[in-house]
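Hi, here's the filled form for the chain we discussed.

Project: internal
Contact: R.S.
Residues: 191
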Amino acid sequence: PGPSCPYISCSVQFVNFEFFSLGASSNRLCFSGNVNNNNLRLTGSSGTLQSPSRDSNYPPDLSCDWLITVPEGKIVKLSFDSFDLQSANWGQCEEDYVEVLDGNYNSSLSIERFCGFGTPRDIRSSGRYMRVRFKSDSESTYFRYRGFKASFIAEDGPSTCKSKCSLKLENANVISRNTTLQMEPWSKHIS
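And the returned structure, exactly as it came back:
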């Protein structure tokens, strides 16, 4: 097998062994045994991420966490190409799930958690970072689920208000200087 071969297979009498040529670690790919599974990073204007596949199904007891970073001034648009995960507890998504967070921290705001089957809607971040988590529990081995595949692209972010914007507030009460404005609904004008 040459460098283009995704894995090396050898046979000893009646036992087959497969060794992935990815080695023990990758900073981009989720797979069993990867020491970086909870610190995966995807950077750029586009890319893909997916659950690992073992016999066309994702393996049990796996946790993977991708941080997607797009160029400054852009936002992340995440689109699911395929989605088939175990769903239990009436769709509570506690065992096997994909969770999308808005930001670059593990504690960032969760946009939504998905499980089951059916392609989720497109998701957009509020800034240049998005975190995607995949988790499978030990019971995943008893069922046959294919996992997920998603792609991301960088989109133009919301326009920023600098010298080109003006804000006119009438009948406004300042609650805290430079922080919060409480406005009466009679007269608001943003140009």
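Let me know if anything looks off before we file it.
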